[in-house]
């Protein structure tokens, strides 16, 4: 099969012919119809993730068709169109037993612990726990966005932050995760302020339901627009400055949700713990979403209140994967970029 292959961290990836994957007894192989280009893929390419070993194929947001099934798989067959969370859970650990597969202690992750979906084929573990059937007619390019950025934003807004109608929500970063968070919070009846240095990203955030879009003087401006601070503030980027700005943008007893990865290579944020204590702030983490939660997200998409298809602003062939990875750091393209093997 063809795949985007990383042979040196930070070096130029190449399009290469590599061996086709085979399914584990509990897994499947999926023919990739579309795969999103995510900031997490950029981190993997740069060597910021200890799980990644070389040579490596990135990619963890995907949609496609099952083409091979392991002997122990019971619920899936060849020909089914599917997507999957980026956390492929084991299904048997205490966290999985409690329904929290997104923090499975034995998780694997395509594009991190193993080869991912910047390829014509990808192997996925524990299919009976992790696969999500795509509704008939659901476009591959939009389905690919569900596996990481959209699902992560959905759970961060609806479950972790528990956003309520009328609350002020600040979203720091208007990339794929941030735009999803903006649209989902707006659909929940929140009043959203988006923060991003890119004018194109800010324009998209306004189109997705933000009341205001901010570029500079972030903390002061957000606090002014939200009449004393946001009820909920989400760092959808994962930089020290965005994390700190998010916490400082909150009103008393507000909720900060950290979604951006904050790798050590980027430096550690100066979280103002004095404010956390004095203002009784909540500092929360959010890490993806389990497969069994996807029906709620698919219902939201089907309702028309969340314009998922509008998130995908660029579709490229697989051979454009190296260029698309390099562009992530500069945020040169607003919205979500999808590769189409």
Automatic annotation (TrEMBL):
The keyword Phosphoprotein does not apply. SUPFAM superfamilies: GroES-like (SSF50129), NAD(P)-binding Rossmann-fold domains (SSF51735). This is Alcohol dehydrogenase. One of its GO terms (molecular function) is zinc ion binding. Transmembrane segments: none annotated. It comes from Kineococcus rhizosphaerae. It comes from the Bacteria. Residues 10-339 form the Enoyl reductase (ER) domain. Belongs to the zinc-containing alcohol dehydrogenase family. Pfam families: ADH_N, ADH_zinc_N. PROSITE patterns: ADH_ZINC (PS00059). Keywords: Metal-binding, Oxidoreductase, Zinc. The lineage of its organism: Bacteria, Bacillati, Actinomycetota, Actinomycetes, Kineosporiales.
């Amino acid at each position: 099969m063809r795949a985007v292959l990383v042979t040196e961290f930070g070096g130029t990836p190449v399009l290469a012919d590599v061996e086709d994957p085979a399914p584990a007894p509990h897994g499947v192989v999926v023919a990739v119809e579309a795969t999103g280009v995510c900031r997490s893929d950029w981190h993997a390419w740069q060597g910021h993730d200890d799980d990644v070993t070389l040579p490596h194929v990135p990619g963890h947001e995907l949609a496609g068709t099952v083409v091979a099934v392991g002997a122990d798989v019971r619920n899936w067959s060849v020909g089914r169109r599917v997507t999957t969370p980026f956390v492929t859970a084991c299904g048997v650990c205490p966290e999985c037993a409690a329904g929290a597969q997104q923090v499975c202690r034995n998780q694997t992750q395509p594009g991190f612990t193993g080869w991912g979906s910047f390829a014509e084929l990808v192997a996925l573990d524990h299919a009976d726990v992790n696969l999500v059937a795509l509704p008939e007619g659901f476009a591959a390019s939009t389905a690919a966005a569900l596996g990481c950025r959209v699902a992560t934003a959905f759970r961060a807004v609806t479950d972790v932050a528990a956003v309520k109608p009328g609350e002020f929500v600040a979203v720091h970063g208007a990339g794929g995760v941030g735009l999803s968070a903006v649209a989902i919070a707006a659909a929940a009846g929140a009043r959203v302020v988006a923060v991003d240095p890119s004018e194109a990203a800010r324009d998209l955030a306004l189109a997705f339901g933000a009341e205001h879009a901010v570029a500079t003087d972030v903390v002061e401006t957000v606090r002014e627009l939200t009449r004393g601070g946001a009820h909920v503030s989400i760092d959808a980027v994962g930089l020290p400055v965005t994390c700190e700005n998010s916490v400082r943008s909150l009103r008393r007893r507000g909720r900060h949700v950290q979604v951006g990865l904050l790798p050590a290579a980027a430096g550690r944020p100066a979280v103002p713990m004095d404010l956390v204590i004095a203002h009784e702030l909540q500092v929360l983490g959010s890490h993806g979403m389990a497969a069994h939660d996807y029906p709620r997200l698919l219902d939201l998409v089907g309702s028309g209140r969340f314009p998922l298809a509008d998130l995908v602003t660029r579709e490229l062939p697989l051979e454009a994967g190296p260029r698309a990875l390099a562009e992530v750091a500069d945020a040169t393209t607003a919205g979500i970029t999808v590769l189409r093997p």
